[in-house]
Each structure stands twice: as structure tokens, then as C-alpha cells.
Amino acid sequence: MKQSEKLDIILRGLYLHKDKYQTIGEILNSNGIEASLEEKWQLVHRLRDDNFVTDPFSSNGDPACKINTYGIEYCEESSYTYKGQSLITNNYTISISDSPNASIVSNSQNVSITINNYTEVKDKIVELREAIDLNKEIDSRRRQDLLECLDEVEANVDQGRIPKYSFKSLLSMSADIATILPIVYALAKLLGVPLP
Fold first, then answer.
1. What domains appear along the chain, each with residue ranges and CATH number?
2. Using one digit for the tens of pLDDT, what is the confidence trace for 3-20?
């Protein structure tokens, strides 16, 4: 990932919580990005040198800061990645095919995702729905919860979003059902959703 993209992600995170100090590690981690402590300090110093954040301080070693008014204005008018285009309203289109970095994208905002294997994903959802319906060991309440969760996963897929949170719920609810768990794992692989 380019440094300009990391700077944009940090600025967006600070912008979304303008009224509080945040650690750079917290913002990067919530977007699935790993960075060394040295890199975090370099990134925050760059933002400080550009006069977009308050003076950083150490919070358990991790740099912490808060966006200032110049940073807010910059986010609303430009970005490091796309000069002259608002960081807040940038629309990124990212194509994913068996990508291990899907979790990074799924945490991003204003992102449109093209799922290259859409037909396979939809077929796997149909297969999973049928397996849930046919399994006589699942009580009616749990079956309803599983199907509602699957509907939410499918709605996200139809809108071009990786269904990270609804998929975690689906995985959790189906963890002890041997007949459907392999189908859930196959669906996770197709979507690029990381498994625990």
C-alpha cells in the first residue's frame, strides 16, 4: 500500500472522530493495515509537518493525535492520493478475486467492490440456504436466525460490499453444524473473508 493511501486512511479516521485523540495504530489496525512503530511515527510526523494534526504524543508507545481545522479543511477539499478530490467523498473502485486483503477493503468507507466471482458466490449462497432448510437437526428459531443472517450477507454482496460483520455472525451461528460449516467456509473463500 502506498504511503499516500495510508495518510488518507489516517486522516479519514481522524476526521470521522474530530473531537477525540486517536492512536495511529488504532486507525490502521481497524482498517486491517499493519505498520511498524517507526512507520506510524513517520506518518504522524508527516501529517504534523503538513499542519493537519495536533502535536503527536505517545500513548503506550503508539503515536496519538487529533485532527485540526486545517486537516478538516484538507479532508473536505483534497487528499494525498487524489489531489483536488475530497478525501471524504472519494469513491474507490476495487476489484477483488480471492484477495487476502479483502478485510482492508471491507473496513473502508466510500468503496465500491467488484466481486469477480459473483455468480459462484450467489450459487454458494443458494446451496447454503438449501442446506439450512433441509437440515432437520436445526430448530426453527435457529434456522430463522441463520436464514436472516444469510439474507444480510446476500444483500451486502448484491450491493458490492464484503459482508464482514454479517459473515462473522453467520460463521459463529453455524460453527457446530457439520453439514453447513464446509459450505460457509467455501463461501468465505469466494468472498475473501478471513477466517479465524
1. 3-90 (1.10.10.10), 117-191 (no CATH)
2. 888 999 999 899 988 889
